[in-house]
Amino acid sequence: MSDIKRVVLAYSGGLDTSVILKWLQVTYGCEVVTFTADLGQGEELEPARAKAQLMGVPDKHIYIDDLREEFVRDFVFPMMRANARYEGDYLLGTSIARPLISKRLIEIARETGADAIAHGATGKGNDQVRFELSAYALDPDIKVIAPWREWELTSRTALIAWAEQHQIPVPKDKRGESPFSTDANLLHTSSEGKVLEDPWEEVPDYVFSRTDNPEDAPDSPEYITIDFERGDGVALNGTAMSPATLLTELNTLGKRHGIGRLDLVENRFVGMKSRGMYETPGGEIYARAHRGIEQITLDRGAAHLKDELMPKYAELIYNGFWFAPEREMLQAAIDHSQAKVSGTVRLKLYKGQASVVGRKSADSLYSERHVTFEDDAGAYDQQDAEGFIKLNALRLRLLAKRDRG
Fold first, then answer.
1. What tens digit of pLDDT does each residue of 98-146 get?
2. Is 325 within a domain?
3. Quaternary structure per UniProt (predicted)?
4. Is the N or the C terminus of the chain less surrounded, counting Cβ atoms within 10 Å?
5. Which residues contact 67 (CB under 8 A, 6 or more apart)?
């Protein structure tokens, strides 16, 4: 690492990454390029520019990029086509953001002639794996600096002391112990640590930031429609919207009705279990709607195969293998399945739940004539079922006769 002259840092402007910025300058004697991604986290990002300038970063080396549309269009929507949920529940809000951040880090490193990239992920979590696997997939020769695995600042107190020693402003709210840590983007907010570390204790109300309490949600349900084309949402209540705009509007609806809360103990890729609280209001509504339109447009074989592939696909994203060939192979199969996944879904939003209550499509495979309890005018011969059952029962009958002796 002695030949590093310039580093691109994933920079939030917060205390941790501000300390990292200065630590890179002091430890490596290098120039630092800061990159701040707007993924719809809902925070003012311009203060990050002022903080970087204060620490000697020239304007040409300060990147603040609005990636909201790319995030939803090229990462969230492809993932949603797969109905991906890690360990059956988690909609992968943090996981799916990391490959995009890594992609942009590598692009900026090339643009600025940087020798390395740096991130603020700790050595205990999944994010270090996700950032670095993505980076190496895009540039096998890139150098990665992970300060949390190198320095001796192992506590909040030590971090603040180092910041004060090097004239880094420390906000008053950072001097005490944070009750929990959060990560946010347009898809979700995650909260972990401190008050959430005991999995027996219920999540305190003050932890929730993206969703109103379902118990306090409106007493009357709200009905909405989402239009899909080839597996992607394109309109809300008949109004065409871009991917990021659609998800933003669904977030507003989900917040009001308390939709998308998840208290989860998950298995981290690095080996430990962790407890987190996730809020994915718009994503939960969207995921329910997507399954709703697939119910009438996907053939049974394709639908069931997708459900078999989904846990593997979700695990690949969770573990940081977005740019791996196996994820891309699965994506190609999933995208092929979405060719006829078009139509409209109607949902009922009510006190924490998003329920599909209607679906229609010009490409529907649902045949009322075949399924009706009334006269089907010869569409289905019920006597055909007898042979179908006997053929499927043949091996069971042979087994039973053998085992009976």
1. 999 999 999 999 999 999 999 999 898 999 999 999 999 999 999 999 9
2. no
3. Homotetramer.
4. C
5. 37, 38, 39, 100, 104
Domain extent at residue 278: 182-298+340-360
18 is in an annotated binding site: yes
* Structural domains counted in the chain: 2
Say whether both 266 and 132 belong to one domain.
no
Strands (E), 301-397: 343-350, 353-360
Whether residues 247 and 141 fall in one domain: no
Residues designated catalytic: 16, 98, 127, 181
Assigned domain for 321 exists: no
pLDDT digits (tens, 9 = 90+) for 152-198: 888 778 888 999 899 888 776 655 666 778 899 999 999 998 899 99
327, part of any domain: no
Instruction: Classify residue 311 by burial, with Cβ atoms within 10 Å: 0-12, 13-18, 19+.
Output: middle
* Residue 310 to residue 304: CA distance in whole angstroms: 10
Question: Parallel, antiparallel, or unpaired: how do β-strands 273-279 and 189-192 relate?
Answer: antiparallel
Q: Is 181 known to sit in a ligand binding site?
A: yes
Mean pLDDT of the chain: 95
Residue 262 sits in a domain whose CATH number is 3.90.1260.10
Reduced to 3 states (helix: H, G, I; strand: E, B; else coil), residue 251 is: helix
Give burial (CB, 10 Å; 0-12/13-18/19+) of 72: buried
Q: Is 297 annotated as a binding residue?
A: no
291 residue type, one letter: R
**Does 380 appear as a known binding residue?**
no
Determine if residue 14 is left, alpha or beta; phi over 0 gives left, psi from -120 to 50 gives alpha, anything else beta: beta
User: Can you read off the two tokens belonging to residue 103?
Assistant: 């992609």
Query: Is residue 405 situated within a structural domain?
Result: no
Does the pTM exceed 0.85?
A: yes
Same domain, 219 and 274: yes
How far is residue 65's CA from residue 240's CA, in Å, rounded to a whole number? 25
Residue 333 CA to residue 343 CA, distance in Å, equals 21
185 known ligand binder: no
Residues linked to residue 398 through DSSP beta bridges, in sequence order: none
